Amino acid sequence: MASFDGFEYEVIIVGSGAGGGMAAHVLTEAGIKVLLLEAGRDYDPITETPMFHQNHDAPLRGTSTSEKNFGYYDATVDGGWQVPGEPYTQAPDSRFMWWRARMLGGRTNHWGRLVPRFTAADFKPFSTDGVGTDWPVDYEEIAPWYDKCEALIGVCGDNPGLDDTPSSSEGVLLPPPKPRVMELLLKSACESLGIAAVPMRRAILTQPKDDRQACFWATPCGRGCAVGAAFQTTTSLIPWARKTGNLKIVTNAMVKEVHLGDAGKASGLTFVNRLNRENVRVNADYVILAASACETARLLLNSISEGFPNGLANSSGQVGRNLMDSLGAGVSGHIPALRNRPKYNEDGHTGNHLYIPWWGREGQKNGELNFSRGYHFEVGAWFSSPSMGIAGAVDGYGKQAKDEIRSNYGTNIGLSLRGEMLVSDDCYCEIDEKIVDQWGIPVLKFHWKWSEQELNQVAHGLKWGRKIIEAMGGVINNPYRTAEQAIEAGGQIIHEVGTTRMGDDPTTSVCNKWGQTWDVENLYVMDGGVFVSNPHKNCTITILTLAMRNASRLAEQLRASMEQKHHG
Q1: Which CATH code of 3.10.129.10, 3.50.50.60, 3.40.50.720, 3.30.70.3270 fits the domain covering 1-41+100-154+232-322+496-568?
Q2: Which pLDDT value is given to residue 391?
């Protein structure tokens, strides 16, 4: 048992996002005392989110700026692509963008809440098609934990019975909202092309749950949700953990190093207090790193000792390697049939109600496609609070221009491709030994290069995106772009994973299947760093699920140990 500021604890967690928030909830509910360190400031969406402000109330009608990458109403308070005083570098000919939240709750305050499950094939990619590496767990092992996680956080959707969309158990999912007009047209067009458009699973409440309210789609929702309808750890897992009395949170705690004790175990951490710039040492019996894939890798690589000259828990040399992100590209179009329709609140929730899952698995098996794995399309098409971009390219001025803008409002559709990349020796992060951040911590240097696999996948997606829009009677907005021109930069989709991957072999992986590092038995990783591959599905639900599973096992071990000591 260690102590900090009068609080005694067994476990330190670094990070308060999906993995850290879930681990804190599971452990504290089990009676385990937890000290949670968060690099960013405190954040309470209930008191900090004025729910009914609209874009017309905001500067520049809520549009994006360099300080607010995702618009004025984005929940991020101190983070983004660039964090002042906290740079990162890139190798020549590399293009990688690293987004950091720097606030309590981390990225869960910001994310899109899309939560599709990984499939059996996703967990065993090498066994499926001979490409990549199998996970040390299979779908059957993880499926009951998906159920538990979905039921806890609240997920709406259905079970369409497709091979790319595994079913949840009966009664787990909340009902999905009805498709909007544009989505009904999309569904019809997709059916004419022989592909499916099905309800998107989202971590958004369509019915009240515990002390959280159902979504009523009243505000720009990227800013956080004061009623708790859109899942984030700051309205659920963290408040629940606090209520147990077993959690102490220290914000503005920038962790710089994990210490190794004489017994070969993690003995504690040093963090920088960002408010007074003092270095603070805290001891630990167990350490859980959930700072995000790249931040966790950075912390391990900067934790150097005689036994680990290349970084803590890095005897395999795999810390920072195997870096992956989702592919990103898009195509958009104008749907003339929807001009001049009445303007109304398209009831539902803050995002697409339908999406297009990957449909080409059989084609890949038959050798018809020039890439492995697949992608899905997310849909952008509904009436939302108008912003600066509402006008588009409109000729004229005065009443004529205004009438044209009103006629076109709600007639554009965007299809965003999110695809799977393969592990590559060209994609990794390492410490840049020449540069430190304002806290004196060496920064990360990124190496990144898209392979032919990813470019071929994007080319296929652009072709089919255009087909779908044309089947809707639409006109493509974008000029023709090659895959090289269309693909987003590495990290831009904010799905980076894989830097501390799990496995069965300590020479080729950093953690075992429980997120426990091979080299340091009391050191765990519970963020996306443990991913072995990066299926095209959004990663957060799997981060949450694995953290729930792995923290539950750790809680059982700690309770058994405490009982043994008590009776001994």
Answers
A1: 3.50.50.60
A2: 61
